[in-house]
Amino acid sequence: MWAKLVIAFGLVTMVISGLTVVVPKIAAAWLTGDIKQIEAIPSDLVATSIDGPINFLLLGLDQREGEEADHDNIRADSIVLVHIPAAHDVVYMISFPRDAWVEIPPYPPTNFRGGRDKINAAFAAGAKTSDGRLNDTPDGWSQGAELTMRTISNLVPGGLKFNGVAIINFKGFEKVVEALGVIKNFCVDEEVYSIHYYPDGTRAFPDLNITYGNDQTVGKHYPKACYDMQPWEALDFARQRYGLSDGDYGRQRHQQQLLKAIVKQTMNPNVFTNLSTVQKLRAAAGDLLTLDLGDFDVEDWVMTLSSLRPDDIVMIKTNGGRFNGKLVDDVYYEYLSDETLELLRHVQAGTVFDFLTRHPDWVATDRV
After folding, report:
1. DSSP state, 9?
2. Range 32-189+224-364: architecture per CATH
3. Is residue 194 within 8 Å of 143, Cβ to Cβ?
């Protein structure tokens, strides 16, 4: 009888343990079923495991309806390297200045010869056809992501490996934030007036700084404090760079802050007990993301990173949050500082914590 009870208890334990693994996998597969999958990571840069250190690249394409677009190029307006060390106990978010002057390598599929340009031009140079025309398709996006990864990898002697890449479409991002509703207790660390919206939430075409010249006080006002934001307000605030004391570096910080807030709000139990919200998130995910998860399924990623929480996200200021300009041929160009290149070498070695102990001011806060 004792033996039978032990066996029966063991079977029940196995079933329960199995459910804790199977149910999240089923849920993850369902939630991400509409997300587009691509093959963007080149074979020589792809990491072979997600059990150790992880490098995940986030590329934000700022394509919005109703605004003037560059019909010849698709530029990655936001470039964020997410690094998770081998212990999987912290998430480091490293944003690259979109205007950073870097060497973009040649890319034979588009007959791009290579050369120096802004880092966000790497995506544009890759998302082309062989005769140089715009290729706004999943294949084009794959090429743009590949060339961006090669450009970043070349910044470090010996290169970087990538476990995954996500291309984030702004229009889909809007839908995700709208599905979540009010963004709770979002902190504004510096007063700013919007160049995109009037105070009543009406969109401005063209942007207000163009319409009103130097008058920066006619748009939506974001005072310095922590308060709840409507979805459009949170998105709008994270897009501002004019009027900030540190310009695009402030925008990088606020983008990281919004990503962290979205992760935090999504992981709230109330979200996943609200079927309507879950349905909206699932629908938005298909418009938001285009993914290359390497050789692993999304369920494997969910289980591998299941112990991480929003408070484990550490936001890092590239170039220490300061413009690093150099005068070349009577023109000021922005460069990645020696310390930023050192940070990338620590990413390669898995020792980012050691770098931050010597540069604590490089850690950005999401509080006032």
Report:
1. H
2. 3-Layer(aba) Sandwich (3.40)
3. no
Q: pTM above the 0.85 mark?
A: no
Q: What is the rounded CA–CA span in Å between residue 150 and residue 321?
A: 24
Alpha-carbon separation of residue 118 from 41, 45, 122, 336 (angstroms): 21, 22, 8, 11
According to DSSP, the β-strands at 363-364 and 313-316 are antiparallel
Residue 367's CB is within 10 A of a number of other CB atoms, namely 8
Q: Which residues, 6 or more positions from 243, have their beta carbon under 8 angstroms from its beta carbon?
A: 192, 193, 195, 216
132 — alpha (psi -120 to 50), left (phi > 0) or beta?
Answer: left
At CA 209, angle to CA 102 and CA 176, rounded to 5?
70
Give burial (CB, 10 Å; 0-12/13-18/19+) of 134: middle
> Which residues does 184 contact at the CB level (< 8 Å), separation at least 6?
228, 261, 265
**Domain spans, the chain:** 1-31, 32-189+224-364
Question: Strand 91-96 relative to strand 76-84: parallel, antiparallel, unpaired?
Answer: antiparallel
Q: Is the pLDDT of residue 221 over 50?
A: yes
C-alpha distances in angstroms, 242 versus 27, 134, 275, 280? 41, 29, 39, 32
What phi and psi, each to the nearest 5 degrees, are found at residue 249?
-70, -35
pLDDT tens by residue, 240-259: 888 888 888 888 888 888 88
